[in-house]
Task: inverse folding
């Protein structure tokens, strides 16, 4: 009898929910049973701010150690929490179809984020969201926030906080978690989100059996993979960690990849942004709104072309002054 595949996951309700989605899809694709193996990371037990303990990448470290040690056969990550640098011995084998990439503001009474009164307290642990909140509504106070989604929403319900900023994908995957509260979706044009937000990554060992590589590959969605490749290339080229105040969102429409990227000062006082469009199929790139076409390199595959486009966007942001805005890190 074939042994079940062991899928490593964090123990939070959200991590288990999204890992369960992948487990079901993988079981259907492979015909094998998939069981969850819960793994505790430092990020799950520490109450320190994410910046203090190494950013959201801290969640991936223990999981990857478990995978390399043979404690599990594959991992599911929230892609926005995953460092952009490849991890030796591991490979992201699939990016499943992407969920809603937007952020939301959750309140008790439905007051829009930009209409919250002076002194209202908004909770978020993300430097990017802090900068965006301060730009959207300079009157409010922003407080650092840790904990799972339930505990964050509980602080809104009790009145300790007037609003929290969360990922739409997270609350969608935990159906009913916002019951009794009001959810305002923040549009991506004015409020771009973290590179990879709303996407999951399925990671396996490079030396995993060929049948596992093949089964996991069936879960992949090429448009999602191309979009997040462009977004993560922006982050990597800026040399800013996955908890930096950088937003990048890419979308594929009619064969075109549209990238919107913004670097923010930590206090929200400055922003450097850029929009760019590349045609994935026709082999050329152009700046949105410029009307000038430029030859693309070499007819590479869509993922490689999207990565190249994200790198180009980041370089242009640096030319426009992003280096003076975004703190760089040695390990993006």
Result:
């Amino acid at each position: 009898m074939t042994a079940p595949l062991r899928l490593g996951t964090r123990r939070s309700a959200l991590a288990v929910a999204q890992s369960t989605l992948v487990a079901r899809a993988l079981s259907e694709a492979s015909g094998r049973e998939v069981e969850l193996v819960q793994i505790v990371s430092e990020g799950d037990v520490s109450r320190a701010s994410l910046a203090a303990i190494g950013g959201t990448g801290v969640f991936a470290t223990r999981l990857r150690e478990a995978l390399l040690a043979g404690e599990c056969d594959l991992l599911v990550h929230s892609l926005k929490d995953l460092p952009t640098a490849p991890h030796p011995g591991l490979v992201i084998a699939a990016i499943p179809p992407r969920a809603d990439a937007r952020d939301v503001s959750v309140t008790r009474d439905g007051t829009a984020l930009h209409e919250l009164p002076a002194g209202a307290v908004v909770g978020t642990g993300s430097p990017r969201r802090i900068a965006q909140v301060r730009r959207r509504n300079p009157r409010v106070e922003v407080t650092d926030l840790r904990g799972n989604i339930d505990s964050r929403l509980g602080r809104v319900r009790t009145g300790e906080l007037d609003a929290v900023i969360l990922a739409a994908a997270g609350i969608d995957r935990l159906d009913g978690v916002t019951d009794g509260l009001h959810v305002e979706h923040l549009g991506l044009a004015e409020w771009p989100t973290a590179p990879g937000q709303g996407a999951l990554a399925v990671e396996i060992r490079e030396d995993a059996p060929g049948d596992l590589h093949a089964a996991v590959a069936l879960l992949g969605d090429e448009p999602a993979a191309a979009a997040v490749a462009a977004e993560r290339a922006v982050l990597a080229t800026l040399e800013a960690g996955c908890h930096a105040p950088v937003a990048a969102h890419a979308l594929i429409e009619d064969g075109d990849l549209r990238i919107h990227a913004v670097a923010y000062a930590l206090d929200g006082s400055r922003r450097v942004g850029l929009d760019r469009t590349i045609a994935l199929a026709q082999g050329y790139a152009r700046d949105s709104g410029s009307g000038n076409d430029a030859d693309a390199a070499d007819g590479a595959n869509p993922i490689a072309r999207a990565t190249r486009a994200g790198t180009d966007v980041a370089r242009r942001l640096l030319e426009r002054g992003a280096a003076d805005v975004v703190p760089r890190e040695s390990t993006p």
Summary: The domain at 227-323 is CATH 3.30.160.40 (Double Stranded RNA Binding Domain). Confidence is low (pLDDT under 50) at residues 49-56, 283-298.
